[in-house]
Design a protein that fits this description.
This protein has 151 residues and is α+β, with helices and mostly antiparallel strands. It contains 6 helices and 6 strands. Strands 1-2 form a two-stranded antiparallel ribbon. The protein has a two-stranded antiparallel ribbon with strand order 3-6. Strands 4-5 form a two-stranded antiparallel sheet. Strand 4 and strand 5 form a beta hairpin. Helix 3 packs across helix 5 and helix 5 crosses helix 6. 28% of the residues are buried.
């Protein structure tokens, strides 16, 4: 009888705790979409290492396609690092200067700050993927962002 009760308690605890673990994994993705299949949500267990962090995909096929042409997806990968909190902004991605928190633009759900109204204005005038390129292309990303070291 004690064994059945212990198993019941264990089953109950597992059913309560596991959804929380799954939610934590999903929360860390912060709504990120797959780099290749942008309509699909990224999954925490479908990733590759990138810049000392992780970029996420929706399935096992997407990382294989990514590996064939990494440069093509660099801007989106850098954006995903910022979106998931693995990269933090330190400077203006256009000038490399200190940022003015009053000069901020939301770029695909990432708040990006700039050093001045001119840099901010340049990004605000851009359309679609051009905004991503201005803030998250490799050269801009290297100027403005730093990947958080894994703990």
């Amino acid at each position: 009888m004690k064994t059945n009760s212990a198993l019941l308690v264990l089953a109950l605890l597992t059913s309560i705790m596991l959804p929380g673990f799954a939610a934590d994994e999903k929360d860390k993705l912060n709504g990120a979409k797959c780099l290749l299949a942008a309509k699909n949500p990224a999954k925490a267990d479908k990733f590759v290492e990138y810049r000392g962090a992780k970029i996420y995909f929706c399935c096992d096929n997407c990382p294989k396609a990514y590996e064939k042409d990494k440069a093509k997806f660099a801007t989106k990968a850098n954006h995903q690092l910022a979106l998931t909190g693995q990269a933090k902004q330190e400077k203006c991605p256009l000038s490399g200067q200190a940022v003015d928190k009053g000069q901020t633009v939301d770029i695909a759900n990432v708040k990006v700050s700039f050093c001045c109204g001119d840099c901010k204005g340049q990004v605000e005038k851009a359309e679609g993927d051009a905004k991503l390129e201005l803030a998250f292309a490799d050269k801009a990303f290297d100027k403005g962002f730093k990947v958080e070291k894994k703990k």
